[in-house]
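Need residues for this backbone.
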């Protein structure tokens, strides 16, 4: 019984580690998209200001 319990705990730890890695990858992907969108909006705003201040 104890061996089965230890195997379950080891399996659960491995699953948790894999899930944490997957979550980190997803967070980085979302952050990259957020930065790209912010840069595009910033460039559009700067372009708009330059066009309307001449």
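Answer:
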């Amino acid at each position: 019984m104890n061996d089965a319990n230890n195997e379950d705990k080891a399996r659960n730890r491995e699953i948790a580690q894999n899930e944490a890695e997957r979550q980190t990858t997803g967070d980085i992907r979302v952050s990259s998209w957020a930065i790209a969108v912010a840069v595009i909006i910033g460039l559009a705003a700067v372009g708009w200001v330059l066009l309307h201040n001449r």
